[in-house]
Amino acid sequence: MTRPQPSEAEDCSGRQVAVQVPTGRHWVTTGDVLEPSGTFGASRGRIEHMEELDEARYISLTTFKMDGSPVATPVWITGAEGSYAFTTGGNSWKARRMRRNPSVEVQVCGMRGRVLPDATRYVGTGQLDSSPAAVASAERALAAKYGWQFHATKFVERVMWRFGRGEGQQAVAVHLSLRAS
Questions:
Q1: Which of these, 62, 91, 90, lies nearest to 75 by C-alpha position?
Q2: Could you tell me which residues come within 8 angstroms of residue 24 by beta carbon, excluding any fewer than 6 positions away?
Q3: Is 105 within a domain?
Q4: Residues 24 and 80 occupy one common structural domain
Q5: pLDDT tens across 72-97, in order?
Q6: Cα–chain-centroid distance for residue 156?
Q7: Strands 122-129 and 171-180, sheet pairing
């Protein structure tokens, strides 16, 4: 996905600057690029590189068993610039594996978990948070990104639970801190 073309704006000194607004983050251009981190141009490559994850609909989350063998699972994700979140059941296998070993690997994938051929591999850690505020915050962000799909999934979960199909697990928010490997 390409960035939108900069639009003209005036800064407080009356100089013309270009303002770009991709996926809700702002860049101000005055010859150099002022990154969200506040540095000029130094972190530009890292931030552009992370845009792949920022715009991804699905990621392949790899967690590790006790014996070290990897297990990949496709999940929805929300977040930006190396800090991402999603929700899952507190007793799900991925949550259990992250409790034992917080190391994770992530790649952009399709809906069924097939990793895209040119996808960058990201490594980092996953932290589980079962507080209602953390779960609600992650679910709001997921609902904003996935819209009707998120709401339909939540509806199906409620119906299944009501008719005794499936476990009624307490949701946990999973916060991922990632960097390109």
A1: 62
A2: 80
A3: yes
A4: no
A5: 999 999 888 778 999 998 889 999 99
A6: 23
A7: antiparallel
